[in-house]
Amino acid sequence: MTLFSQHVVPLSEPAMTDSSAAASGTSTAAFIEARNLWQEYGDLVVLERLNIKVDEGEFCTLVGASGCGKSTFLRMLLGQERPSRGELLLNGQALPNEPDPSRGVVFQRYSVFPHLSVLDNVALGLELPRSPVLGRLFGAAKREARERAAEILTKVGLGHALNKYPSALSGGMQQRLAIAQAVVMQPRMLLLDEPFGALDPGIRKDMHALLLELWQETRLTVFMVTHDLSEGFSLGTRLLVFDKVRHDPQAPNAYGARITYDIPLNEARRAQAQLPSELAERIAAR
Ligand SMILES: Nc1ncnc2c1ncn2[C@@H]1O[C@H](COP(=O)(O)OP(=O)(O)OP(=O)(O)O)[C@@H](O)[C@H]1O
């Protein structure tokens, strides 16, 4: 039996994994829960009836055809957008509507400030909340923030580049910097939107190792969008496939995507990782 046939989710039912089913049997709320979530922009339905429960510490990889709403879902998790309908809950409460330090984010590009040094890029996040007016700390507090920033930068392999500017860094180094910038704030959730999409395969491997090391150390809850299925299968504890289950060729905007496969990943499943070839091709296409 293939992985595909083991995990067909009935179209009318919310996707449930082993862990989410177990979670639903307990009285404690899931860390993150989407209940009947919709996102519509005018007459464009992007997401419809999306249901999911995610426990704290899970590493979810999100895959799906281009334009099916993966980034939209991340933006809602970040608090940049509100759902048009349904609920998005954090520990059973509505997720805060504004981005905050509990949620770190890394995009494919442009996550870092080009006019700040590597050290300042990371120290700024620590300094701003403690000195919102001046934007800068002084004395011991400043030293402490910069030491902490330097520590994280050393961890991600940028200890030698503290005084460089992002333009002097390679793509992989810039993404290391973006990750340091996000994790220095000690978020509970890390949202990654194709963070390694622009990197060469060899560099990507190094980044995977770094990300897994950070995740294992911090046990952050991770949501990572990727078009690379092998990355999706090998990095996560859970692979979420976004897809439309209804299509109307006369009205292509009328129906949105939801999570059609919710695949818990373990060693055995990684080894036989596969999705239907037509779906795999759509996910890989940009
Ligand atoms: N603010 C907005 N207003 C109108 N349409 C939007 C808005 N944000 C996103 N969309 C549309 O919603 C759809 C989903 O976009 P989204 O970026 O979430 O898809 P995606 O699955 O992340 O795609 P990709 O894999 O190509 O990055 C697209 O058709 C996009 O044009």
Describe this structure in words.
Strand 1 (32-41) and strand 2 (44-54) form a beta hairpin. With 286 residues, this protein is α/β, with parallel strands linked by helices. The strands form two sheets. Strands 6-7-8-3-9-10 form a six-stranded mixed sheet, sandwiched between helices. Helix 5 (139-155) crosses helix 6 and helix 6 packs parallel to helix 7. The protein is built from ten helices and ten strands. The structure holds adenosine-5'-triphosphate (ATP). Adenosine-5'-triphosphate (ATP) binds at residues 41, 44, 46, 64, 66-72.
Would you tell me which CATH topology of the largest domain applies? Rossmann fold
In what range is the share of β-strand residues?
15-25%
Helix content class: 25-40%
Rounded to an integer in angstroms, the radius of gyration calculated over CA atoms is: 20 Å
User: What number is the mean pLDDT?
Assistant: 85
What is the structural class? alpha/beta
Poorly predicted ranges (pLDDT <50, ≥5 residues)?
1-25
Number of domains: 2
By CATH, the superfamily of the largest domain comes out as: P-loop containing nucleotide triphosphate hydrolases
The CATH class assignment of the largest domain is: Alpha Beta
Are any ligands bound, and if so which? adenosine-5'-triphosphate
Shape: globular
Domain ABC transporter: 32-269
InterPro entries: AAA+_ATPase, ABC_SmlMolc_Importer, ABC_transporter-like_ATP-bd, ABC_transporter-like_CS, P-loop_NTPase
GO molecular function: acyltransferase activity
Protein name: Lauroyl acyltransferase
